[in-house]
Amino acid sequence: MSSRTHEPHGGHRSVSGGLARAAVFGVSDGLVSNVSLILGFAGSGVDSTVVRLAGLAGAVAGGISMAAGEWVSITSQNDLIERELAIERRELVRNVEHETVELAAVYESHGMSSERAAAAAEEVMQEPENALAVHAREELGVDPDSLPPALSAAALSLVCFLFGALLPVIPWFVSDGAQAAWASLAIGVAAAAAVGGLVARFAERPIIYGVVRQVVIVLVACGITYLIGEAVGVNLAG
C-alpha cells in the first residue's frame, strides 16, 4: 500500500440550476448590449441627452426582455421535465418489472456485474420516490428535486442585466462627447475583464483566457456599432 495519504477534496460548488447562468449572462449581456448601444449613438454625433436616454431605455427594455426570456425558457423546460416525470412515475406503477430490468441494465452499463445490478435495481425499486429520482437522473439526466426556479432566475437576470447595462451610462451624467464615450468604453472593458476573469477563476480555466475573451467581445461589438452610428450620422447630416 502507498504511504501517501490523500486528503478528501473539498465540497463541489453548486453548478446546477439556472441561477449562476442567469447572473453571468445578465451582467455580460447588459454590459455588451448597452455599451455598444451607447457608443453607436455617440458615433452618430447626437446630443449627450439622447445618448443618456438611449442608455437608460436600453437598460430597462433589455432587462425586462432578458428576465421574461429567462422565465419563459426555464418554465417551458420545467414543464417538459414534469411531463416526462409524470410518464416515468406512471410506468413505475404499471410496468414495475420492465422498469426494474431497465434500471439493472443501466447499472450494468456502469460496470456492475449482472447479479449485483439486478439486486441493486430491486432494492431501489422498493421505494417509489427514490426509484423515480434514480430513473430521472439515469434516463433524463435531471434531478426532480433540483429543478431551477424560474421566478428567481428571472429576477436575478433582471437585476444583473441592469447592473451591467447601467455602468456605461454613468459617464454621460457627468460628462459628454468624446470624453464620456471613452469613459463608457473604459468602464465596459474593465467590467468585461472582471466578469471574464471571475468566470474563468470559478471554472478553474486560465484567467487570461476568460479576460481576453470577454474584452474582445466588447471591443468588437462597440467597434461595429460605433462605425454604424458614425455612418448613419454622416448620412443624416448630409
Pick out the low-confidence regions. 1-17
**Annotation field: number of helices:** 9
Order of secondary-structure elements: HHHHHHHHH
Largest sheet: none
C-alpha Rg, in Å? Answer: 26 Å
Inertia-based shape: elongated
Structural class comes to mainly alpha
Number of domains: 1
What does this 3D model show about the protein?
By secondary structure, the chain is an all-alpha fold. It has one domain (19-228). Helices cover 79% and strands 0% of the residues. It contains nine helices and no strands. Helix 3 crosses helix 4 and helix 8 runs antiparallel to helix 9. The longest helix is centred in the N-terminal third of the chain and has 47 residues, at 48-94. It is elongated, with a radius of gyration of 26 Å.
Key descriptive features of the protein:
single chain; 238 residues; mainly alpha; disordered N terminus
Structure in a nutshell:
This protein has 238 residues and is mainly α. The protein contains nine helices and no strands.
Topology:
Blueprint: H1 19-44, H2 48-94, H3 96-109, H4 114-124, H5 128-140, H6 150-166, H7 171-174, H8 177-202, H9 207-237
